[in-house]
Amino acid sequence: MSQQLQSTKQPGYQNHAFTTNGKRILVVEDDPDISHLLEIHLQDNAFKVDVVNNGIDGLNRASNHSYALIVLDLMLPGLDGLEVCRLLRSQSITVPILMLTAKSSELDRVLGLELGADDYLTKPFSIRELQARVKAILRRANIAANQVTANQDEIIESQSLVIDVSGRKVFIDKQSVELTAKEFDLLLHFARNPGRVFSRGQLLDQVWGYSHSGYEHTVNSHINRLRKKIEKSPEQSQYIKTVWGVGYRFSER
Question: What whole-number distance in Å separates Cα of residue 42 and Cα of residue 117?
Fold first, then answer.
C-alpha cells in the first residue's frame, strides 16, 4: 500500500449518512495504490467512480461525460493537473474539481485555485478527510443549483458591481469579470449579506461547506484574488472590507 495515503477505515467504522444518489466521480491519479483506495472508499459512500491514470485521458473523459466531481492529481503524465483544470475551465466545464498535490508549495495550490479548482488536499491525507471534502463540495454544488432555480431572475447591484445570479456572471462598470466557481460563490455570499461580518471560519463553513481547523488560509487566498479582480484598489477595498481581528464584510448597498 502506498505510504502517501492512509486509510482511516476501522472495524466497526460507520460512515455518516449522506445521500449520493449514485453520483459519478472521475478520479485522475497515476499512482495505482492511491487511485484504488480512492475508488474503494468513494464507492463505500455509494458514488460511482471512473478512474484514469493520465492527464490526457482525464481531460477526454471530463470533456465528453457528465460528472458530479473530479478528483484530480497535480502531477500526472501527459498533461499535468493544472493544465487539465485550465483546459476544462476554458471549455466552460464547471464540474467541481478537488485537486490533490504532493507538493508543499503554496504557489502550486494557488495556481490550481486560480485556474478554477474548487478545493485542494495535500498528500498525505486521511480518507475520512477526503470523504468530508467530497461531500462538502457536492453539498455546496447542490445548494447553489437550488438557489439558481429559486432565483432565476435575481440580479444584485452594489455601486458599479452587478451580479447576474442565474447566469453566474459578474460585471464591473459594465465590463465582464472572469471569476472561478468558488470566487463567484464567495462574492455571492458576501453580496447577499451586505454589512454582516464573517470570520474566516464562518466563510469556510458556509461557502466551502466544512470547518476544518487550519484551512482558513484558503479563505484568505480567495479573498485576495477576488479583490484583485473586482476592486479598483485592492489596498483600499470598495466592496470587501477587512474588519481587523474579526474577519470580512461586504459594503452595504
Answer: 20
Q: Which CATH code of 1.25.40.10, 3.30.300.30, 3.40.50.2300, 3.40.640.10 fits the domain covering 17-145?
A: 3.40.50.2300
Measured CA to CA, the distance from residue 99 to residue 214 in angstroms comes to 18
pLDDT score of 186 more than 60 = yes
pTM above 0.90, yes or no: no
pLDDT at 216: 74
CA–CA gap between residue 196 and residue 248 (Å, rounded): 8
19 pLDDT above the threshold of 80: no
Q: Hey, what's the torsion of the CAs at 216, 108, 144, 28, to 10 degrees?
A: -130
Spatial contact of 116 and 222, defined as CB atoms under 8 Å apart: no
Neighbours of 146 (CB within 10 A): 10
